[in-house]
Design goal:
Shape: globular
Strand order of the largest sheet: 4-5-6-7-8-9
Number of domains: 2
Largest sheet: 6 strands, parallel
Helix content: 25-40%
CATH class of the largest domain: Alpha Beta
Number of helices: 15
Order of helices and strands: HEHHEEHEHHEHEHHEHHEHEHHH
Structural class: alpha/beta
Radius of gyration: 22 Å
Strand content: 5-15%
Amino acid sequence: MNAHGARVRCLAIASRSCSGGGTRVRPFSARRAALVSSITPDPPCDSWHLAEDTFDVVVSGEAAGLVTRLGELIGTAACESSAARAVRRGLHQTASVPGNWIAASVHQGVVREVVGSTSSSQDAPLPAPSALFGISTVFDVFDHNPTAHVFSDSGRGCIYDCTFCSEGMSAVGSRPQLDGAAERLYGQLATAATIVAEDHPVRKAAAFVEDSVFLGGSPRAIERFVTLARAHPPGGTFGCQFTIDQVLARRDLLIALVEVGLSYVFVGLETSEPLMIGGLSKNVRPQTAWLHRMEAVLAFLSSAGILCGVGVLFGLGEDQQSRLRLVSVLERWRTTYGSPCTVSFNWAVQHPLRGHDGGRNYRYLDWALPNTDWISAFEPFGEASALYPLAGRQHPRLSEVEELRGAIETLNRSNLDTAGAAVSRNH
């Protein structure tokens, strides 16, 4: 409810929040998808005529300045019967706001976009979220201690460009910006530790680094961070994301990171057959089988006392038997290594990707799961949809998803007590 008593529908998107065994993302909804559908312009079409209040305003991108401008529009809408309507109709006035962003609203039945100017850069430092909002999340992998989300701001997305990923370089349009990244990350970790000490004095501080790849995977930036943390330990423990091949190529750096608080690494396994599905640009050493490399990662991390989580993404073109075999392999690894302790299952959903969507041109106006049978089948998944598969891929089959749910539930019941305790004792 805003200052004038008008109800404003506020919608928000987060790209990845299931990396550490915390709160899972619920299945991909049509309304979440509508937030980013404006990135792919739609031509006027009578059959797709939308009501003006289908949504108020959708924003995607770096929009700190735009949020201020939208607030000003609401503040000047006292004479309007609806502040939300005033913002929708005045959205064109925001075009001069600098930043890499797109905003959209419904105008005369179709989605219309306003694109920010490109005069701003990503160099301006952002405040630590924990300093602004406190810390209320917890991750299982950090013993349910208060867990901050921290950022190095080393880039808008990933250094790789996997075709199915919304964080790929083609979608985010920017290369890593590593100058000062180690210092920014160190500062955010130190701030998080201070906040936990003040607000949760009997708890330990924890943090998850939300970089797509920790400090862009840069050995120099990682070494700089280790130097800072050794000189003045920020306090607490943290987790981060690496690729399979990065872990195997940077073992010494990971050992050094353990010395300054690293206790958890999340890896995007995605599939058992990267060569068959194609488009996995982070598969940089294909001479050795993908699953063999993943097992080597688990063996190394286990020996180093580092917990490991993995992300699995179905719907990339693999068959059902491949999916079931992968779940079985995960269960075997848990028995052998006590790891992965966290498995995030998702079903690939086509994102707009700034027009790089294989010609799908989805409108995202229907609910992603058409009935309760699908909702039940996809319950163990984070992001999932029955209606919006990747370009060139088939829609999921309900019977296969239900079969997978049974296999995943069996995996989740697997006993980690003995092996998991052995890993935990190492750190």
